[in-house]
User: Fold these one by one.
Assistant:
Number 1:
Amino acid sequence: MGSPRQIDPYAELRHALVTHLRHRGIRDEQVLAAMERLPRELFVHPAFIHRAYEDVALPLGYNQTISQPYTVAFMTSLLEVQPGDKVLEIGTGSGYQAALLAVMGARVYTVERQWELYQRARQLFARLGLPVQTRFGDGSLGWSEHAPYDGIIVTAAAPHIPKPLKEQLAISGRLVIPVGGPQSQILVRLRRVSEQEYDYEEFGEFRFVPLIGKEGWSETLETRPTSSSS
Ligand code: SAH
């Protein structure tokens, strides 16, 4: 980041991706500007670096994927991030989503349960000088020490909306989460309007890898919810 455009071989591809996202309906200029700055080639698995700017999800190893750029842009738009907002992400993965939020000026907290991905993302945040706070553990329970959050984004598929995440939202905070079965989910946005009330909206069908944890799917049988609270 920060290097002059003319010596960045990926700048044109990055610009073309942003143009493509505009055509697909992404309108949030803050999101588009951040995507134009963030080097996605550093976040993909090295074996897929030549495909870093295609609008597709790519394997990260360990059965996980970096989300499709359109999905990242769409979910980030739904979060309605303002600079200075405190945002929690569940499912660090490659670190791309968390890094994007940091570039947008959010104070980012992110939780990952897969050790190698957690380590790799931490190194990348350090290398890029991005102030992202990381935690290794079960993010289906949130990260209560830093709550409340202006935004919470879950980038793995949940069987239901985890109660701890609802509780860790600030008043007027937004929770964006894919909810449903292991094969497909509905993208949901919950907005906390008061201590007890939430607005609920749905944004169509998506497909994510499973959220595994106390408020997610069980590790051994990924199709069975481990908890039925909501
Ligand atoms: N946001 C990521 C993509 C995430 S893929 C990116 O930008 O690349 C989903 C990630 O969620 C995987 O890395 C998976 O290990 C992680 N995950 C699944 N269940 C989790 C849980 N309970 N807590 C934290 N991370 C979890």
Number 2:
Amino acid sequence: MAALYENQQLKVYNSLTGKKEEFTPLNEGHIGMYVCGPTVYSNVHLGNCRTFMSFDMIFRYLRHLGFKVRYVRNITDAGHLEDDAEQGEDKIAKKARLEQLEPMEVVQRYTVDFHNILQKFNFLPPSIEPTATGHIIEQIEIIKEIQNKGFAYEKNGSVYFDVSKFNETHEYGKLSGRKLEDMIANTRELAAQDEKNSPQDFALWKKAEPQHIMRWPSPWGDGFPGWHLECTAMSTKYLGDTFDIHGGGMDLKFPHHECEIAQAEACNGKSPVRYWLHANMLTLNGKKMAKSTGNNLLPEEIFSGDNMILSKAFSPAVVRFFMMQAHYTSILDLSNDALLAAEKGYQRLMEALDQLPSLITSGKSSFDYQSWKQKCYDAMNDDFNTPILIANLFEGVKHINLVKQGNETITQEDKALLESTLDNFIFEVLGLEGISEKGQDSNQLAGVVNLLIQLRNEARANKDFDTSDKIRDELAEIGIQLKDGKDGTTFSSR
Ligand code: AMP
Ligand code: ZN
């Protein structure tokens, strides 16, 4: 059978070219995708979750289309300094100092938090989740190579990337649309305070002061790698010198991603990424959610309703639905009213899904379900346009209600098509499957249902079809659908 992607031409907005482009992977049927992961020095806030959720949705749709996706999302557990000008402490080392913990205790605590939260939101795990500290050797090798090629210099045990030298033969600023001359003009006064030759240069390796705990030996003495370098090391190690998709939040475009391009081009002589995808920010009161300003909301505060701006608790599914109602490249503002509206919409969708199995089929439909299904794909093929997809799903809901009220007819075939399309998009692509309303019970539920699936398989093996049908039908009655596929039985719940 042909893979879906052969008939569905996906287009993506490439930040590098500023255009929506037809997406064709480097190797047919396979996609390499890298997304910058969290810096694990505090709890992830909802803004962070939005970016990761945008890429979870993208990962899901690419898989749905039949691509084999190797999705690498790292954990930044060293090297991320407090500000972009590379001043200040390492974020993790600072937290460790303040809380009197080992840096790796900080890393462990917030990596676990990150995974817990993502699980509640029903994220698919990435294929590889490498850590920066696990790739120090690779980073040192890249620095040596960049130095060999003449694009880096050492100063007092630190190594810096020579942006001006690089810009003689390459184009520094091409992703963010900045010109090096303008950057230099804007930062002239700063130059004197810095050991770098120019304020635009950035650290590949930083010398560790005696009190700095996170340190590794290197040809330049004890130190630690620069934040930008770790993503270059981990992406190219697992995906090759050039790979298909690199993602991250819009705020990482400069300097982080610009520096990643410069490092990879300096080291390998090739542009590392074919499609750069940037997810837009979640705001609160019209301002970017950020750890540093305190203008943020934690997922747990939403799940418990324990925050002044909220009138009640909202489930992970509703929050996920709320996020999916906006295009990933648009700014999204979070408010109690917006969450209440999302909750209503989500419930309407789920209620219609519940009605679907009991719809009575009769004559030919007046509605063209085939072209409706294609419209759902068209929305996703147009740079993952989830708000248009959701509008189309509600078109499906409208017809469920019309049939239910007896104002429209539907054939058995169209009913099956409606059901499979809604299932595919709502559960598989938007990821609203299996998120329990409380966000805690999904593991237990999966355990119990899988046990029932086993009992049903045993009953079927014994030709005890009364029992096997009873298990399937009674689960369906409480909203758990079993689906028999070639790889066994799976379930969806609502
Ligand atoms: P960090 O842990 O600070 O490195 O951030 C992890 C990810 O969250 C990055 O991709 C950021 O771009 C993203 N991010 C940070 N703040 C927001 C926000 N308010 N909305 C959406 N994404 C964000
Ligand atoms: Zn990165």
Number 3:
Amino acid sequence: MKRIGIITSGGDCGGLNAVIKGAARMAASMDIEVVVIPNGYAGLYNLTEMESLVALTPERLVSIDVTRAGSEAGHSRVKIKKIENPDKYDRIKKGLEKFGIDGLVISGGDDTGSVILDLAGQGIKCVHVPKTMDMDLQSYSVGGDSAINRVAEFMSDLRTTGMSHNRVLVLEVFGRYAGHTAFRGGIGADADCILLPEIPVDFEVVYGHMKRTYISRVKASDVRAGTYAIVAAEGMKDAKGEVIADESAGKDAFGHIKLAGAGKYVRKRLEAFMKDDPDIEAFMKDTGAYVPGVYVKPEIREVTPGHLVRSGRSFAYDVNFGMEAGAAGVALLKEGLTGVTVVRAAGSEIFYQATAEVIKQRHVDLSEVALFERLGICFGRKPEEYKPELKAWEGKIERHM
Ligand code: F6P
């Protein structure tokens, strides 16, 4: 193996530049050159048309900042199978031959992984480095922790304006049909309520929790200030189990509907409950906030950071994981493995698994939700019973970081 191509694909996120740097440095230590295949699978398909590729020499690596999110290699959402050209795989192979590329390290999520299986089936050597801010793969995926930190920061920062205006705030966050980033980001900000795709929302429960928490908070404050923080996953479902999505947002290149509108929906549902609740006017009067015809009930506002949750910074966990997993991807490729995913790299131990297994969607474990319900956080359902089961740990303690 003399030359490897690196591809990043799907939605960008934190930690990808660390994957690139880890792969390039490991390859250099093995006398293998790494080149960037730009713009994900679009670039792979168009290699035949390109004049040159950027080699990740030590000099070029200097300008790749692992602390920044996004990817120096660029992204696209292109599913090779969907390309109509019947010679598409030959075209890709010719492109790889043209640049003397013997194998690929490809970082992406489930859609990217499905293309890896496709390419590996065509005899193209590729190893997968798991990446997605949605965290819905079976293994940890680079970008997850950075997104969680961003969600937590945004929710926590919003409290200053929430407290100043006594507003209820709803933060709608990316994560597609899995609630991992909303869940852990919400916990990271000590949110009052977290709405996940895994739990169809009963708004009566949410309203009851909001009213109790918010009113008691404002009443307990010497300056009559309070807020209530809700994190809503973009893929959350209504009580019937239907995803709340504004269909006018359209579909992406993989055919997935673009999710939008969860925050607005939550606001409207809570406003409707508040409008019909006589206790609200009494509360406003009791706390000296009531101004007839002008200010008669607390306001609810939704905030949608959108792509900001996966932009900006790469947090340290993702830089660590990204470096290790990128390096491990090269080591696996060098040994001739293909169609596999790096699931963990710790020192000299590199664990991998068939990509087909790793890309099976993973959802939030509801037993973990029940623990936080016991701690008073609302998840849009009547709290489930939480029964601690005590077990002595057997075997090796996993490394935490
Ligand atoms: O899958 C990652 C993700 O960030 C989702 O959480 C989000 O729904 C989607 O990508 C947005 O995709 P795009 O950047 O293509 O609009």
